[in-house]
What we know:
The structure holds two protein chains of two kinds.
Chain A: E1 14-15, H1 19-24, E2 28-32, E3 35-40, H2 44-53, E4 56-59, E5 64-69, H3 73-80, E6 92-99, E7 105-115, E8 118-123, H4 128-138, E9 144-147, E10 153-158, H5 162-167, E11 182-187, E12 190-195, E13 204-209, H6 214-224, E14 231-233, H7 235-244, H8 279-288, E15 292-299, E16 310-313, E17 316-327, E18 332-340, E19 349-354, E20 357-364
Parallel strand pairs in A: 1-3, 4-14
Antiparallel strand pairs in A: 2-3, 4-10, 5-8, 5-9, 6-7, 7-8, 10-13, 11-12, 12-13, 15-18, 15-20, 16-17, 16-19, 17-18, 19-20
Chain B: E1 7-8, E2 13-18, E3 21-26, H1 28-34, E4 37-41, E5 48-49, E6 54-60, E7 64-68, E8 73-78, H2 81-84, H3 88-91, E9 100-104, H4 116-123
Amino acid sequence: MVGLSMELAQGSLQRTPLNEIHRSMGAKMTEFGGWEMPVYYSGILDEHQAVRTAVGVFDVSHMGEIEIRGPQALALINYATTNDAGKLAAQQAQYSGMLYEHGGFVDDILVHKVSGEHYFLCVNASNQRKDFEHLRALNGWECQVELVSEGYAQLAIQGPFALRTLQKLTPVNLAAIRYYWFQDGEVCGAPARIARTGYTGEDGFEIYIPPADARRIWTAVLEAGSEFGVKPCGLGARNTLRLEAKMALYGHEIDATITPLEADLAWIVKWGKGDFMGRAALERQRSAGVRRKLVGFEMRGRGIARDGYEVLADGAPAGWVTSGGPAPTLNKNIGLCYLPVELATPGRAIHVLVRNQPVEAVVVPTPFYKRAKS
Amino acid sequence: MYPDQFRYTKEHEWIAVEGGVGTVGITDHAQKELGDIVYVDLPKPGDLVEKMKVMGSVESVKAVSEIFSPVSGEVVEVNTALADAPEMLNQDPHGAAWLVKIKLRDPDELSDLLSASEYQAYLGE
């Protein structure tokens, strides 16, 4: 069988502070963006289910962190990103994009406003160096821009029982933190930035903690969540969960060749805030008309769409799959793809080329999965 | 773990031959590496397969893997239960979750497949 070449190139990969504990707990490890990360523990389906119905904990310490400080920090952030950081209150977070001048993505990021002179960015692991250089190059406001990833481990505690699990480990009143807000406090006595954010479509928290405390906190989360059926989870389940919730993954839905208008992310572009990097290109695209658009689809025939597979409409090449696979919660095979806008409407019949066989699929509304609000 | 009466490929398939017909499956190592198996694509009865050529695929949640035929011959039976229950491949890869039965064209082709001990040495177990 081909495709089993998952042996790891020893020594060449970066490791999180939890690497040893993942191995000792029997996680299946894989390479992701230059990092050696757990792909699953008990199994992707099992972990996916745990997050949807109970609680799961992910080591996401590979993610990068960048701090921006200075009296004019907001000016730099608002020039470098598409969303309007000026709308943030202190302790509020925001999903945003950083673009090149031509409108393609440098990265998608989370902007946290610590104070008016201090912003904390969470960025993709494999993009962190590029993001840092990009921000420094745009820094005409004498801000202090620092790549501080080595100062943080990050855990994501996700699922309907995430709050009750984490609440046992912190004096911070978690119920008072609203979705996309955060609070600085302590977890297991260690300083922690506790954000009510996530990449799974469930309620949950992402906590930024000192690397030296990561192992202790990981173990404590598993203990605290045991009465709720907590599962340690890998990047495999993180991917199926985010796909069901239709959250973009850099290198798949978005990259340097894709603009937010194409990626169905117009909502993170705030035209009213003044100039920003990439704005002119987006304005040109908006007035000329966006030609291709990201849409969701469901397989109707037997077969699973995978990243990179070709999409056909009326027998002719029309686009490509950016992410695809089984949707465990929905018991369907789903995917995201780019299609010309005239084809990008729910109900449109398409085919996905699976090993040279066209398999029937249909464009559907997204997200595929949306949790019931409690 | 790896039955002595089977022969193995370095691509992690097994074959058990009886009366000129070989039952073929994937190894326990393969199912463990793949994780949760959610889809199986197999040849049809009557299809001709060639030794170490692709005859189908199995897909886990995360990835697609091609299945190679350990021998040349004609497919005489397919395990149809796998279409609705691909997870059987994670539970009983050396038993109930066999893939296909192949009528061997040339039994000599078995000679260069691995024995159980050779396969385990190859896995480094």
